[in-house]
Amino acid sequence: MSNRLSGYDQRRQRTAWFRDARFGMFIHWGLYAIPARGEWVRSAEQMSIEDYQPYFDRFNPVAFDPAAWARQAKRAGMRYAVLTAKHHDGFCLFDSSLTDYKATCTPAGRDLVREFVEAFRAENLKVGLYYSLPDWHHPDYPAWGDRQHPMRSNPEYRDKKHDWSNYVDYLHGQVRELCVNYGRLDIMWFDFSYWDKRGDAWRANELVRMVRSLQPDVLIDNRLGGSMEKAEPDEFAGDFHGPEQGVPRNGCQDELGRPLAWEACITLNNSWGYSAGDHEWKTPATVIRTLVNCASKDGNLLVNVGPDARGVIPLRATEILDEVGKWLAANGEAIYGCGPDARPRPEWGRWTRKGNLLYAHVMEQMIGHIALPGLRDQVKFARRVADEAEVILTDFWNQEVDSFDEPEDVFMAFRRPVMCTWPLPDPTNTVVRLELE
């Protein structure tokens, strides 16, 4: 009998650190920080290469300090980060030998990917690189009639000939450079497949084999176009799902019901790249509760920041992340290394679990003492995670007079008398560690 692991087991082994980490930073940054209208500005405004060129000519982020970014991520409690090495506009933050459309040819004159990788490794954070499969700058990427190419409606491109094979060679060559020139990579984040541009169009099996030959332990996302849900998925299907701007209702599973690693990627406002007019910031409480939602479903949260044209993460973003980091400093044991519990979601919040430790994330103020459904005679001790204060465990306070519809429940309270309604110690999310029999 062969001792080789199945493909599923190999993916579970590769993603073990990722599933423990739970929280990461996404960084969208490039030329689009200068117009400051988001990373899709060239497509949205159907700008030509000539229209976009002034941003290349003026790209000089004088305040770029990747060590400060890394310290911010660590302060926020993040365990890994992913940077846009190349976004859809084709501009490279790394020193590619295959193009002059790169940061080292701008006034910046720096290999920004190298500096990012070194700074985040110095803070003991895992590093990932995002690479866009579409490329609106490359002459052999089809434009006319495309879904989002800036020149999709420009009649000058109607009869333009493209050498698709040449473009795919370019794509493979740049990915090879990223895998060879920047030391160990923990994540390769491809974005994205659509229409007929998926799978074989990217020569995806060949691409994945090349990446794995150079970076054997790297995690690859699911956007090359394969289906992770199959019992025997395509080779290029990836190691983890990447739902965008939303959290799956029940996590992610394959068609056999086996859990799949996944990561919800969200923006802190409503933009990925820097957008000077976007002030719709999510609150720290929203980020914290979303992180708990993900962990309770065996998933990760990747929160995006969009540095400005100077290379500075917006102040409001740093303030939000600092508040999240304070909460994680006190309550992180209920997130890192934790996964789901089989019990139904409680009415007051969420469960996470690690071995015989069950964590109650109480996010909604309840009337009176708080029911722990189905846990009668199963909890040995209860404490608040943030300060190790004992939490009172009790029966329903008035059971001699009133029958109660859940006799299998035990109840908890933060103060006496237990029938009173006491404010939650942490109104965002009070975490209680339940030590089970």
List keywords for this structure.
437 residues, alpha/beta, TIM Barrel, 2 domains, seven-stranded parallel beta sheet, four-stranded antiparallel beta sheet, 10 helices
Word description of this protein:
This protein is an alpha/beta fold and 437 residues long. The chain folds into 2 domains: 7-334, Glycosidases (TIM Barrel), CATH 3.20.20; 349-436, Golgi alpha-mannosidase II (Immunoglobulin-like, Sandwich), CATH 2.60.40.1180. It contains 10 helices and 14 strands. It has helices at 7-14, 16-21, 41-44, 49-57, 66-75, 112-122, 164-181, 204-214, 284-296, 315-331, and strands at 23-27, 80-86, 126-132, 187-191, 219-220, 263-267, 300-305, 349-354, 357-362, 370-372, 379-384, 392-394, 410-413, 430-436. A 7-stranded parallel β-sheet has the order 5-4-3-2-1-7-6. A 4-stranded antiparallel β-sheet has the order 8-9-14-11. A 3-stranded antiparallel β-sheet has the order 10-13-12, with no helix packed on it. α6 links the parallel β2 and β3 (126-132). The chain is elongated, with a radius of gyration of 24 Å. The model has no long low-confidence stretch (mean pLDDT 97).
Gross geometry = elongated
Number of discrete helical segments:
10
State the CATH architecture of the largest domain. Alpha-Beta Barrel
Sheet of most strands: 7 strands, parallel
Query: What structural category do the secondary elements indicate?
Result: alpha/beta
